[in-house]
Amino acid sequence: MSQVTIVEVAPRDGFQSVKEFIPTETKIKIVEALAATGVPRMEIGSFVSPKAIPQMADTAEVLKRARLPATLRTHVLVPNRKGLELAKAAGVKEVCWVLSVSESHNQSNVRRSVDQSFADFEEAWKEQGEGLKLRFALATSFDCPFEGRTPEARVIACVERVLKIVDELEISIADTTGRAAPNHVRGLFSTLVRNYGSDKVQFSFHGHDTYNLGVANAIAAYEAGVRIIDGAAAGLGGCPFAPGATGNTATEDLVFAFEHMGISTGIDFAKLLEAADMVQAVAPSQAGGRVRTVSRQRALAGFGENTRGLPPEVAACA
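RE: above sequence
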């Protein structure tokens, strides 16, 4: 059976968009519930300025106290040298360094030019990167809220630039605004995977569902050779520095779609739906996704092991 790795990002990209502070205890319970679904990877918070994103101020505490399976790979987001230093001090083993392909969004997001961000990364990684796994995220790879469609040549130039600094990493290509179309996603990833993918260089896709294209774009990325896809339970999320960008593609929608296609995620769908309900509860008006709006019995019908214990008339629909 074909496989895809789903990276759960609600505890970072989902939570950061919620204005009212989510109690640390609640975050820990949600992180543990998500981990219990069998999701193989999770992004848990970020080390950013608490003035810019107060919601992430307790990331170190969540990491310290959450009881997680030894098999779960976790990483945190860092946007600069200071964030990398704090992450390493907290005992983090994997980080996601983010910068934007477009100048306008990079200025809005981290208050510096793309050149300055690359220079900061190169110096910081040489000093602090030893012993760390790296995911390098390129935001606005398809569209910028200020500049419009991002030229593919600009994305390729950024990929080549980071590969001159680090030769073994994962590069996350992000549809920050959710405006990408499946043919755009398929075309860009086909080029990147063909020309730059290897045993040492993997590509992943981070999509948003602003225009209801999140699942379609994830499938397009998969068809182009990408095997690592981000999702946020309950579709929570959105970039605070990208006007109009709403939630991430819901993890439960991605799992439903891929499993329905015969592509294994390794995630317990029933447990995922329960965890997604917990995520939805922290910001009901901001949650998204479609599978959760379907009758729970209907959503679970047809998922093999998940049909056990259901009423016969429901299981018969599988």
